[in-house]
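FAQ: What does a multi-protein file look like?

Like this. Sequence, then tokens, then the next protein.
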Amino acid sequence: MATQHPNAAPCAPAPSRPYRQARAGYGKRSVPGQTPPQASDFGFLPERERYVAGYVDHLPDGAAMDIKSLAKDLPLYGQMAIGTALRTLAVAGHLRHVRCRVETLGQSRWVTRTYWSRCARDNEWWSSHLAGEAAEKEGSPAQEATAPPPPWVPAEEPVSVPQQRPTAGPAPDSTAPSPAYVALARLGRIEPRLALSAGDCAALERLAAEWFTRGVNADYLTHALTSGIPSQIGSPVGFVRRRLTDKLPPRLPDAPAPESPAPAARPLLVECAECGRPGPADALPDGLCRPCRGTVHAGAGAADAPAAELPGGRDVKALVGSMRNLMRAP
């Protein structure tokens, strides 16, 4: 079995301006807390992955990170090889494809971003970092595009405009009867035995108004005064006064306004580096969903081994594990 040498890979070409810019909301996103670039970065990756990682690391944020764009910029490898390299970089802990929702000019849409880390990160770090990104975006929605500023217009001298006199409308009628007065005046039309005069309504208006201050309406007041009355009523005003006093409803305390629950932060969805299936970060360790993780671990050894080499001669899972352990070493 041939031994891979860290320095055997060709140097990845540094991106020159202008680089391929992704659409608004898409592209590369560098994670914080990275170490300065060094010549030994990605030294334990295979040749192809080291070549692709060196190029991606030099790209600025917002650059195109899709397979087709990278294949056009890196002529040594095709689209399938670039896709396999990105998958390996995700397993090694350098990147995550993330699907998130952004607000653009009042419209909501889903975009795919590639979070990149020069230092290899484990699954726990990626899960906590993406959870923090989701909480931050929920607190302050991203505005990917804003309206262009208005064109500059030279200042003009102020022009005096005569103040226009407002059109005179009908003055409010200050003598309009109160709802309590109207409810008492209508009692005689609903129940003739409780017909009240104008003076009676004015005398009982204050007692009836107390009912309205306790949250009842005119229908409730009318029903309380007219239900279960005797067949003969000697004094309608005295009977209504007694009922307004005896059946006064209780004063209910003001109900506190229900507290609206705080909106839960929408989690960012990590895309599988193999099939693109979205899911929570915890459900996609190493950036792979469960079916693809089993397929990759089962077929990577046979695909990378030479034809004359036995299928069990190379344990890709153990190789990747050792690579990640070496990356975590100081």
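And here is the next protein:
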Amino acid sequence: MARVRRLPVDPIAEAKRQWLAHGWADAAPGMTLVTSVMRAQQLILARVEAALKPFGLTFARYEMLTLLSFTREGRMPMASATARLQVHPTSVTNTVDRLEASGLVRREQHPSDGRATLVAVTPEGRDIAARATAALNTEVFERPGLNRQDTDDLVALIARLRRDAGDFDDPRPQPEPL
């Protein structure tokens, strides 16, 4: 991936300066947060896409294959995949369509619910998921761009934002192991 020339000034800091100069002081921190997170997402996604390109996968397709690979039987109802991936059902349908066309998943009739469809990973899909995970681990996840403490702190902050937005509930305390 070609490296873009560094800018002489942080454009987000400049945007914040402009927000303040225009009298939007109450909104300036939030604008800076949103813009910073969106730019960070672009930077991280570019690294992820570069790691997945040799496998012909997008991140959405990779997530589906990996989700299925983590299940005991390599299959789950499409509605469950929608919930776990936190995307619209149409996105799951499109992702499954593309993976199915590539021979990496297949649709199956649900054994007890005639209205539901299962999506199942094929052996080829499992293999690509494993190889793509190894590439992502090496090229992105092991070196995300922040040190361990900063990574942990940022994940905790974002988790709090997600929880407060209604993304999930805190789990009930688990019993101590015997």
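Q: Is there any per-entry metadata?
A: Some entries carry free-text notes. For the entry above: The longest strand covers residues 105-109.
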